[in-house]
UniProtKB/TrEMBL annotation:
InterPro entries given in the database record: CAP_dom (IPR014044), CAP_sf (IPR035940), CRISP-related (IPR001283)
Domain of life: Eukaryota
Domain SCP as annotated: residue spans: 268-424
UniProt key word Mitochondrion: no
Pfam family, one: CAP
UniProt name for this protein: SCP-like protein
Organism encoding this protein: Ancylostoma caninum
Keywords: Signal
Signal peptide interval: 1-19
Ranges annotated as spanning the membrane: none
């Protein structure tokens, strides 16, 4: 009874608490579908051989017999029990036989589980599996891929979470579980094969083939705690309007006039852009980003957490609507930085945004860039490194992005304020994370200086 009361108090202000999908749970079907679809999208990329292996420039091999993950009400309830039905700042003890994923931050108005899933899954865009030459499987050999590897693990079938937002404590907590114990070193992430399933015989253990995703659907998909029907993936996403100059959370993209014509998955597109920046900037501040020669760049002491800005989005939307072929003149965006991407042959809006944002960051491993003094020099202005240094510029605090389809091409652009790439200035201050934050800032993600 006490646990139920604590849970009710913790989630009383949440937009999804009025229509729980699981008896005793807190997540509604819309949120569940959004989370499950996100994980399965990465699983489909993996089995199709469309997932890049971090910053290596190589693709991970095609898979086989990768399961389509489904929501488990039992795991959701186990997660609620683990956190005691309230916001917590320390990770609970991992339930036996499960893998857990934990996040706790201030600013509950900003954070949600969708953001954390983006950060966890986005590990593959900054880090790589070291040895992918084996013919039979890809194995877990890089602890910096801990969250990604366990979320896309081929034999995992179930996932469940609790999300708590506690206004009086100014805390957000997410705690998620899968139905397998955590991968150990050299454990199998997925089997290498010929790609997507096309018939039920391509799957094992009584699973059937979902030809749309190419993933195998396990025979048992129901859970004992379900309030109604089986919890299965759907296509809807949670939506809440963005206000002007706010952080982006579970939002309807284009709130500031962005170019995301239907049926573009706008919310996920623009959310990916900001969440990738959070993750990459945090990894840089922690000293986990390597240069082309393999040397790690220094830790960053003053790396700010970006805020999504709808005014910047609206301005850059007007630009991409013109179907440009290159970045805009600096005179047209005084004081603002810009990254630009145009390419054809991409599947959809989502693929375009993913490719744009990751390609801007990955140049740090592809070209000769900034030195260990992390100072931006005159010669860098004509180098592809400018996309990385703009994304990494510590004093930049706002960004806004837009995407347009121009014939068979996709055009993606993001603008940043204040602009980076200032000659003879440092990209960021070297030092331990959050040791040189501006007055009034607090530290999030263990690395980013956050201002109200």
């Amino acid at each position: 009874m006490l646990l139920a009361l604590l849970t009710a108090l913790a989630v009383s202000e949440l937009p999804y608490a009025s229509s729980q999908a699981c008896q005793g749970g807190v997540m509604n079907q819309t949120y569940i579908d959004s989370h499950i679809n996100k994980i399965n999208t990465y699983r489909t990329k993996l089995i199709k051989g469309e997932q890049e292996n971090g910053v290596t420039g190589a693709m991970l091999p095609k898979g086989k017999n990768i399961n389509k993950i489904a929501w488990s009400c039992d795991l959701e309830l186990a997660a609620i029990k683990a956190v005691g039905g309230k916001c917590v700042t320390m990770k609970p003890a991992t339930p036996s036989g499960n893998t857990d994923f934990f996040a706790s931050y201030q600013d509950p108005d900003y954070y949600d589980t969708s953001i954390m899933l983006d950060i966890w899954l986005d590990e593959i865009n900054a880090h790589s599996f070291h040895n992918v030459t084996a013919m039979d499987s890809v194995k877990y050999d890089n602890e910096q891929l801990r969250n990604y590897a366990n979320l896309v693990r081929g034999t995992t079938t179930s996932f469940g979470c609790v999300e708590m937002k506690c206004a009086t404590e100014n805390l957000f907590t997410a705690y998620c579980l899968t139905n397998q114990a955590e991968l150990q070193k050299d454990g199998v992430v997925y089997e290498v094969g010929n790609g997507t399933c096309t018939q039920d015989s391509d799957c094992t253990g009584g699973a059937t083939c979902d030809t749309g995703s190419g993933l195998c659907v396990p025979a048992a998909t129901t859970t004992s705690a379900a309030a109604g029907t089986t919890t299965t993936p759907a296509s809807t996403v949670a939506t809440t309007t963005i206000g002007s100059t706010t952080t982006i959370a579970t939002t309807t993209a284009g709130g500031g006039g962005g170019v995301l014509p239907s049926p573009a998955p706008g919310k996920d597109n623009l959310q990916f852009s900001i969440n990738t920046c959070y993750f990459c900037r945090a990894e840089l501040a922690k000293g986990n980003i390597a240069k082309k020669n393999g040397n790690l760049l220094p830790k960053g002491a003053d790396m700010s957490r970006l805020r999504y800005n709808c005014g910047l989005e609206a301005a850059v939307a007007q630009f991409v609507q013109q179907c440009p072929t290159a970045t805009s003149p600096e005179s047209s965006r005084a004081g603002l930085g810009e990254n630009f991407f145009r390419r054809n042959g991409l599947a959809d809006y989502s693929a375009a945004v993913h490719k744009a944002v990751t390609s801007w960051w990955k140049v740090v491993r592809q070209v000769n860039g900034i030195g260990m003094a992390v100072t931006f020099r005159q010669q860098h202005l004509s180098s592809p490194i400018v996309s990385f240094t703009q994304m990494a510029w510590a004093k930049t605090r706002k960004m806004g992005c837009a995407i347009a389809k121009c014939s068979s091409d996709y055009v993606v652009a993001c603008r940043y304020s204040p602009r980076g790439n200032q000659v003879d200035q440092v990209v960021y201050a070297r030092g331990n994370p959050c040791t040189a934050c501006a007055s009034g800032a607090w530290c999030t993600e263990g690395a980013l200086c956050t201002l109200p």
